[in-house]
Amino acid sequence: MKSYIIIYILLGIMPLYAQQNKKVDLTKRLTIGSSVPDLPVMDILNFPSSTIDLDDYKEKVLILDFWDTYCSTCIELMPHVKEVQKTVGDKAQIITVTWQSKEVIDQFFKGNKYLKEYQAYLPTIIADSLLKSYFPHQGVPHTVFIYKGKVKAITYFDYIKPEYIEKLIAEDRLDIPVKDDFSTKDVIPDQENLNLKGKVLITGYQDGLEFKGGLPIEQDSVTGMFVTSMINTGILDAFTRLHAMISPSYYLWIPGRMEWYVKDQNDYQYKPNSIGPRIWDTKNAICYQRFSQDTVSKKEMAKLVMQDLVSFLGVSVTIEKKEKEVIVIRKTTKSRVGIAKPESNRRVEGMENLAFLMDYTKMYPPTLDESGFTEIIDVPDFSSLEKLNQQILYYGLEAVLAKRVIDVMVIRELNKN
Fold first, then answer.
1. pLDDT of res. 4
2. 13-171 has which fold?
3. Please, which residues have CB within 8 angstroms of residue 192's CB and are 6 or more apart in sequence?
4. In the beta sheet, which residues pair with residue 412?
5. What is the dihedral of CA 371, 374, 376, 377, to 10 degrees?
6. Using one digit for the tens of pLDDT, what is the confidence trace for 358-400?
7. Tens-digit pLDDT profile for residues 243-267
């Protein structure tokens, strides 16, 4: 899997950035309903002046959006934030906040081609430590709504939308999920007075709980039992994780590897660039906990959890062998006379990894490597099969459409035939 990691670095594919867990001073922390103390004048970029007094915005909705240059999600959202500010006009002021220095942020704005394309240069408070002490967090984006001098919401970037600004002005409150990176809240109430022998609990989204990856199994300090959990997880993601523990696969579950037999796919999987992942979570994510007397291996526990989900949710997600149209990268005897060597500033080791990259784009049917080619090459242009073939021919290879039997993820609601 090392080569896959290299691919991610080469392409700049970055997940939502989360800072490392470390001890954070929470003594100055403000919560929803807290009055915001008087704030000093702060240094700011991309603003009519070089400083800003946030106290000037007490009669407006003030949105603080914490970010840094390591957060690809934050940067990707800046054009959206710019459009929201344009839409709401003087009703609200959105200010981004970073701990990084003026020199770092100034250089970042000057050099970022994406922000230049959209002219998405947002007002940015720089070198901040005070605001973060009031609104501490472990990961960014981290969003705070303030209105009439009081904290109204500490939440996720999904809620930077005109409708929530209008709702806050109209009702002086926001009933939206809380982002609390330091929460110790549990899904199941305290079991101290129960003679608990075992329990499975599946609920919808639980506010104040943070998403957990994998399948953590922890011993509960109250009952002494072993607690297996999945927190605020989409149903398809839950099954996918479980399958990965039972029988790992090293390809992506792209649309060409999936078959749906459900009324509404949106109930199971978030559609990118729709309502926002956290808003989708509040409607569709689940929380799962299993209290067990004994612990078992992750693989065996994953099988038990999957049985629970099938039984309680009425949906199955299975991996089945099916014939599908795919792209096959194979050796060719076509002439290579006059074919120039592909050149780029990115490199990949072998066609297996190139197939992985093609799957990542979700532009094509599943891509399979049957060439066995393992040399390091410059990453070709695979924006079309024609362009790809023009370049990999240099290596005696071609990419063709063909039928193959592959693993397919099949999602079925159990009340359907």
1. 38
2. Glutaredoxin (3.40.30)
3. 222
4. 261, 316
5. 0
6. 999 999 999 999 999 999 988 888 889 999 999 999 999 999 9
7. 999 999 888 999 999 999 999 999 9
| pLDDT band, residue 222 (cuts 50/70/90) | confident
Mean pLDDT of 149-155: 97
Q: How large is the greatest C-alpha to C-alpha distance in the chain, in angstroms?
A: 80
| Exposure of 365 in the CB half-sphere (CA atoms within 13 A) | 19
Phi, psi torsion values for 139, nearest 5 degrees? -140, 155
- Kindly tell me if the per-residue pLDDT of 237 is higher than 80: yes
In the structure, what pLDDT confidence band is assigned to residue 224 with cuts at 50, 70 and 90? confident
CB 157 within 8 A of CB 73: yes
Burial of residue 386, with CB atoms counted within 10 A of its CB: 0-12 exposed, 13-18 middle, 19 or more buried: exposed
Measured CA to CA, the distance from residue 361 to residue 382 in angstroms comes to: 10
Report the C-alpha gap between 24 and 43 in whole angstroms.
24
Comparing CA positions, the residue from 42, 29, 81, 35 lying closest to residue 58 is 35
Triad 285, 287, 292: Cα angle to 5°: 155
Cβ(56)–Cβ(95) below 8 Å: no
Q: Report the half-sphere exposure of 197 (CA within 13 A, side-chain side).
A: 0
Distance from the Cα of residue 357 to its chain's centroid: 19
**In this predicted structure, what is the pLDDT of residue 193?**
53
Question: What is the per-residue burial (b if ≥16 Cβ within 10 Å, else e) of 91-109?
Answer: ebbbbbbbbbeeeebeebb
Domain boundaries, the chain: 13-171, 199-313, 321-408
Compute and round to an integer the Cα radius of gyration of the chain: 25
- Given a contact cutoff of 8 angstroms between Cβ atoms, the answer to whether 165 and 88 are in contact is yes
Report the chain's terminal Cα–Cα distance, integer Å: 39
SS3 (DSSP) at 200: strand
Gap between the Cα atoms of 82 and 253, Å rounded? 33
The amino acid occupying position 124 is T
DSSP character at residue 35 = B
Q: Is 60 exceeded by the pLDDT of residue 15? A: no
Closest CA to 96 of 57, 121, 123: 123
Angle between helices 162-171 and 72-88 (to 10 degrees): 60
- Helix, strand, coil proportions of the chain in percent (round to 5)? 30, 25, 45
Lowest mean pLDDT among 18-22, 325-329, 344-348, 360-364: 18-22
